[in-house]
Amino acid sequence: MMNRDLETEFKALLPGQSTELGATRRTALKAALGVGYAASALPIMAQTVIKTPTDGLTAGEVSIDVKGFKMPAYRAMPAGGKNLPVVLVLSEIFGVHEHIADVANRFARAGYLAIAPELFVRQGDAQSYGEMAKLIAEVISKVPDAQVLGDLDATVAWAGANGGDLARVGVTGFCWGGRQTWLYTAHNKSIKAGVAWYGRIVGTQNELTPKNPIDIAGQLNGPVLGLYGEADTGIPLDGVEKMKAALAAGNAKSKASQFVVYKDAPHAFHADYRPSYRKEAAEDGWKRCLAWFKQHGV
């Protein structure tokens, strides 16, 4: 049975779009890490998709050892770079497809070692699903937060052994990854700052998701910048207000966190390959993201 909070959030992803796609299109769109788009993410808006050049970068798939399990990840960094600041890039429910890889490329061009780990891989192939509800029920809702935190710890360790400076680590994520950004910033003491793009803040608790961002708001290891949409039907603004109050009652890093709520912006306003894309909000959010990391030592 689908988690009720995930169901609400997924309904906000692509309003008015059918969640079922034909087998032919689904098969055609199944792709390798960082290539193509998940079938569930369609329709895409090819005319607005941003393509970041990779000349001068080392970019592509790597394998990260997590207690013997080989987790795939997309890595992008300036070629030959050493002691680089590190940014973890956490995907939407669709996994590490072309858009997430491009975000990592954008960070690399800004001088970062960016890594996007495939955090659903133990539960299934997120890119192979043509029905969003089925993807959530069979894969996403079965991913334990504890597993994600462990995978991200391993990703940070891998970065430190492969050109990254572990004194300068940040995390950013979109939708599902936005929620994980809040959780991981409270979990890992090496995180200097986080940027959460429209990640769920409140929700029900269960064995796999025992805490939500609002539950750990006062315990952040680095300040988080929350980028949210006023017209996001899956994440009501009263949740944002509750989170602000929880942050204000927390430690110094929590108190330093901030929110930007974009007027008329829907969920997934940064996703330039989808109808939800809002160019002005996305570009402003990206500038704020880079400035936030720089301000807080990433």
Set out the fold topology.
Layout: H1 4-11, H2 23-29, E1 57-66, E2 69-78, E3 84-90, H3 98-109, E4 113-117, H4 132-138, H5 145-161, E5 164-174, H6 176-187, E6 191-197, E7 224-229, H7 237-248, H8 252-255, E8 258-262, H9 279-295
Parallel strand pairs: 3-4, 3-5, 5-6, 6-7, 7-8
Antiparallel strand pairs: 1-2, 2-4
Structural summary, described in words:
The protein is of the alpha/beta class and 298 residues long. It has one domain: Alpha/Beta hydrolase fold, catalytic domain (Rossmann fold). The chain is 32% helix and 20% strand. The protein contains 9 helices and 8 strands. An 8-stranded mixed sheet has the order 1-2-4-3-5-6-7-8, with helices on both faces. Helix 3 links the parallel strand 3 and strand 4. Helix 5 packs across helix 6. It is globular. About 6% of the residues have low confidence.
